[in-house]
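User: Can you write out an input/output pair for a complex, sequences first and structure second?

Assistant: Here is one pair. Inputs:
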Amino acid sequence: MVHVIRVGLDFFRDLIVCEGYQSNPGFMQRLDARVKLLGVAALVALTVFVQSVVFQVAVLTFCCALTYLSKIPLRRLVSRSLAIVVPAFIIVLPRAFLSAFSPLGFGFHQFPDEWGFLLLFTLRVAAASASLILLTSTTGFSCILSCLRWLRFPKMLLWVMAMTHRYLILLTSELYRLALGRESRVHKDLSVKSVWKEGGRMLGAFFMKSLERGERVQMAALSRSGCSELKFYSPSFKISVGEAAFILPIILLTCLGLVLSI
Amino acid sequence: MMTKPVVKVKDLHYIYQDGTVGLEYACIDAYAGDSVAVVGPNGSGKSTLLFLIDGLLKPSRGEVYVFDELMSERAAKRLRRRIGLLMQNPDDMLFNSTVLEDLEFGPAQLDMPKNEAEAKIRDVAARLNIQGLLNKPPYRLSEGEKQRVALASILVTNPDLLLLDEPTSQVDLNSKKVILRILNELRDAGKTTIFTTHDLSTVPYLANRVYLMTGEKRVAAEGSVRDILRNAKLLQTCGLEPPDITKLFLTLGSREPPLTVEEGVEALTKILTTTKLKGSRSI
């Protein structure tokens, strides 16, 4: 059980913290955070609005190229994207089969379109998630927040995002410690029923501990003058050749998207 | 003219929401440049006392004055800009994605200019030997590293008053040495420090005054480090023991037992030299 929790938590933490890659001397890491954020936002928007498989493949290829230039293993991008793409694919899969049978009894005439939609949808999710994973893998969370603040996002939204991120990291550590403590005192194999029962108890204890932990962390933040409005340092603003090299392909992709949409 | 204390705690009493008494009675004074040790067994209210001084808890009775101002809910936000609180569990202090973000948190809240904060972070990181940890997430650090980073996170704001809750309790020898060195530097720089501990062996290295707390969550005695640590009977009533070296000399009947190993070595050398001169075996 602890092993499952550890693997799950490591994956989850890696997804939200992306340790190790943000300080790599790669292409994306060197870019101005605001340019990066706006560029990725444009990519995500394009993947949503452009209904073309060719376009989604182009965005995915662009993301793969950026991953390589940013010295991030391609395997990491693929595995992280799959964690989002596979559930999305499973959710949308029944649509292909359900629509295949016309309620009016006219056979399978919708079949090819639905499979096409399924492919487009999956590629769209893959392209959007790859873009976002690329952003979080190369940019610190506080940096993203300060960019959002620079873009005049509502303070309350940023505060909720900062808090959520903070407590997600803390609570995953807490859950792991709890599981470890419990496992060290369990000396027999549990039945499936007992595992569920124990899991439920552990979850209850986890919520209680979370509450107590949350209070102490809030106190620690308060003691360091972290009041209602959290502040972050803004990244330095600089536009250079790197930023232009990042933006240019996005502009070309936008043009491609427009051409394909017309 | 008598200087005013940096921290003045008057008749302090605190009860938690569930009815548990957090602190029964405390009266404490700390002057500028003082390094005050609050010693007592586990559960004697030491941490609660620090939280009350920092204004994180509201006293059920009594008053706390910091920098000659009553610690109220409104004043707390302003006064905390000059206070650094180190919590007992460093995990509570480190809540950002990376060590660097954690170190930036305090200065950012104080609106410290970015270049000034960066310089301060570089300086503190070098002093605490954590330069290599800046891009790591806090949960990947050892306990000693976490404690050093937590200490760094308060030092970067350059506080005038330091409240340290068991600063050396969970760390290895190397980290302990680094922390003790830094705290001594701060004391020499005239910063006021109030720290809690139940490990009395560190007190002589850091403190110039000691407040002794009992299991009944009361301040039982106050005095110089020597007066308190040499009083084995008084310490025993509070569930504590003098440092090992002091205990050894007290057991041997010494009237002025040393408080540290270094003092012990000095005392033993003196005794051995005297013994050699007299040609006697007795101490």
